[in-house]
Amino acid sequence: MALASGLAITACSQPASTPEADTTSAASAESTAAESTDEANSADGSAEAEAPAEVSSPQARLVATYDGGIVVLDAETLEPVTDITLEGFNRLNRLGDERNVVVSTPQGFQVLDVGAWTEPHGDHTHSYTTTPRLTDHVYEGEKPGHVVNHNGRTLLFSDGDGQVQDLDNEKLADAAKDSEFADPDAVPELTPHHGVAVALDNGGMVHTEGTEDERFSIVAVDAEGEETARIDECPGVHGEAAAGNGALAFGCEDGVVIFKDGEFTKVDSPDVYGRMGNQFGSEESDIVLADYKVDKDAELERPTRISLVNTTTEKIQLVDVEASYSFRSLGRGPEGEALVLGTDGNLRIIDPESGDITSTVQVTEEWEEPLQWQDPRPTLFVQDGKAYVTEPDKELLHVVDIASGEVEQSKDINFSLNEITGVAG
């Protein structure tokens, strides 16, 4: 088990789901990470982590990638806080401490301190900000893949070596106060494959099994690593989502697997081939949102139906949203609403219980999903009741208030944004 590289911290300087594709291959972790960090942090000339400043309330921030770098934005004003130069195709995932994100680089999961956080203090809290910085701390892994926050733990899955790194969110937050980094707990390595792992509340986890060529299995293990449940009937298993009732959903090429009460259940798709590879859960709903594709041989299928998986009744409802969408244009609202940004530029707000489209908001101009999944396209990210929608062709970022269905702001960012995530501050 390769643990994180404990490099000294040097200078200062968007979400997820992934389609069926390989991530970046690994290289010499320590030297390349240090070089890329030095280059990134040269943008503002800072040398060390700045002392934090206390602020009156949480300061939410957004983090987004563009070709050649990463920009951190104020989530309210959309003004840039820091621009970080970092070449390559950079992927973003939130850690569970609500302060840091990890950037998938050739070396592994490199930590980016977003520089905004809140600490509890008895019956109240204190909020702080500092300059965002790409640290040189890397949780090393070959082909860094899915990152899942659940049950107080963050699990990092590396496709190229089958490594799962298990991080305690409280330890992450405590270490971050001193600009340090928590070490992951050791987990036995799996056979390398494009997989995912999710923490359970008993100290165990659920993870996929497979090879580079095929994946059929999902396994539950306890805190000692002993297998407690298994299912081998999920061809092409991909992705995961947690529902409000504690159930987990995993996508298959012919349905979905639900894990609850320690057992797996397979729910078949209405079609022989009905792939539900990208799922989105909500603490406010027992229903999981997923995409739905039926053409196994398509170079790029542009589906117009989404699936709603009821993890209580174990039934699937298909909803025609009358426009195609991409894996980056799905999300969940603060009350569990299913959100779908279509290629017609409309954001649909859907009641997950009934499947009814309750509101439609025109946000962007019409767009077409590119053939390459890495290429920019309008992307949806939800935080604090707001839907943030990128429009890369116009270098715009839009903000939609989900409750009112109003576009509150559209701002020229001067970047063609790709991936986007954020922290609540």
UniProtKB/TrEMBL annotation:
Gene3D superfamilies: YVTN repeat-like/Quinoprotein amine dehydrogenase (2.130.10.10). Residues 1-60 are annotated as: Disordered. Residues 16-60 have a biased composition (Low complexity). InterPro entries: AztD-like, Quino_amine_DH_bsu, WD40/YVTN_repeat-like_dom_sf. It comes from the Bacteria. This is Secreted protein.
